Every structure is written in structure tokens, then in C-alpha cells.
Amino acid sequence: MVRNLRELWQYRALLWNLTVRELRARYRASVLGFLWTFLNPTLNMVVYAFVFGVLMPQSQKAYAYWLFAGLLPWIFFTSSVGAGTSAVSDRRDLLTKVRFPAQVLPATVVATNLINYLLSLPLLLALGLFFGDLPSWHLVLFLPLAALQTLFTLAVTYLLSALNVRFRDLQHIVGNVLTMMFFLTPVVWPLKQVGELKDVVLYANPMASLLDGYRSIFFEHTLPAFEPLLEVLVVSLVLLAIASAVFESRREEFAELI
């Protein structure tokens, strides 16, 4: 794990260049261009807020703001994992021509979506002000939370991208699993709805713990629950160690398998 992280740091300039190129290419041919960074999550929020806030009313106050606080990090996670699973297997052009650091490819996907997430934060704060909610000092905890989510997302994406090189069906399975997880994770429904099962959901689903943490600092102005987030850290490190071991063992095989 240490070697892979060290190499990732060594190739940080390459990672940055690929990330910038991906951001430019994503909206290059569209009329609105970079504005889609803000429009995509906003349109998602409007649709979900209408369905679950109007057609299926929730008891949660300022539902649109509460929803957006969890929807943005969820989009960051699913966009990274969904696209990152095939990040290595889709880049035969790079892996077969030179000794290219394969671990940079899934990291580029995560970095691109992380930047999109961070750029969407002003929309979240503006929506909070619209509902009369002023930011509190708890927002200083955003960076540690975002760093933890990035670590978890990177670990999951690393592992899946390495496995997908040999098992190509995995990228299709992941898409369906993410859809199922959307409804099993408290993205559009409050965690309090499961009553006594709240702790089970928090400890069984790392994303539930992260979304609860974000909503604590943005919406409830309280400290996040520490123990579930500590578990997320442990799970992230374990997954990252496994993913690094897979990358290390398959490093020479990637070009051949692709």
C-alpha cells in the first residue's frame, strides 16, 4: 500500500494533468460547458425533492436543503466508482505503449469527481441561506470528512478497477449495485425512519455514516458521530491495502489482460 501511495505522489503532476484534461473534455462540446458542473447536481436535487418532498412528503424540514447535503457527496461517490471501475480496462492505449502507472487512472476519475463536488458546495451553502440556515463553526469539519470520503472512494475504486481487468462483467454488476445502494442508503430518506436499526445502517454502510456526518455539520450544526466514521477509516485502509496488493500482483499483467 505504501509503495502505491508513494508512486501516486511521485506521479502527482501526471495525475493533475490527466484530471484537468478530463475536466476540459467532459463539457467541451456542450453549449453550457462548465456550467453543467452546477446544473447536473441541481437538476438531480430538484427531481428528487419534487418526488420525495412533494409527491411523497417527508417530515424532514427544509427537505431540499437536507437532501442536497447528502446528494452531493453521494454523486461524488457513485460517479467515481461507476466510471472508475473501468478506468484501467478502458485505457489500453496508455498501458500497452509505455510503462504507465496504472494506479493513476482510477485516481484521475476520483480526483475529477472530487473537484466537481467541491465546486458544487457554493450551491449547497446558497440553498441553506435560502432556507434561512446560516453556516456554523462545524463547517471546519468538512475537510476531514471530505478527505475520509475521498480515501474510502479511492479504495473502492482502486479495488474494483483492478478486478475489472480480469472480470469484465464486474463493471456492469457495479452499476446495478450502485442503483440498489441508492435506495438502501439514507440519501433521500432520513436515517431516523429506520428507528432502532439506525446504528445497524451506520455501521453496515460506510456511505450512510459519511452522509450522516455531512448533514450533521451542514444541516444540524452538530458534531458527527465519531465511532461510525472511525469504522469508515478502518474499512478504507483495509480496502486500500487489498487494492494495492492486487495492483502490485497484477502490475505486469494489466497490458496483457487488456
Show the helix and strand layout:
Blueprint: H1 2-10, H2 12-26, H3 36-55, H4 63-84, H5 92-95, H6 104-130, H7 142-164, H8 170-184, H9 198-204, H10 206-220, H11 226-250, H12 254-257
Helix pairs in contact: 2-6, 3-4, 3-6, 4-6, 4-7, 4-8, 4-10, 6-7, 7-10, 7-11, 9-10, 10-11
Account of the protein in words:
The protein is mainly alpha-helical and 258 residues long. The protein has one domain. 72% of the residues lie in helices and 0% in strands. It contains twelve helices and no strands. α6 (104-130) runs antiparallel to α7. It is globular and about 55 Å long. The model has no long low-confidence stretch (mean pLDDT 83).
What characterizes the major β-sheet?
none
Mean pLDDT over the residues? 83
Helix/strand order: HHHHHHHHHHHH
Helix content: over 70%
Task: Figure out the total of helices.
Answer: 12
The overall strand count is 0
How far from one another are the termini? Answer: 23 Å
The assigned structural class equals mainly alpha
Low-pLDDT runs of 5+ residues are none
Shape designation? globular
Radius of gyration: 19 Å
Overall structural domain count: 1
Q: Which strand-content bin applies to the residues?
A: under 5%
What attributes characterize this protein structure?
258 residues; mainly alpha; 12 helices; globular
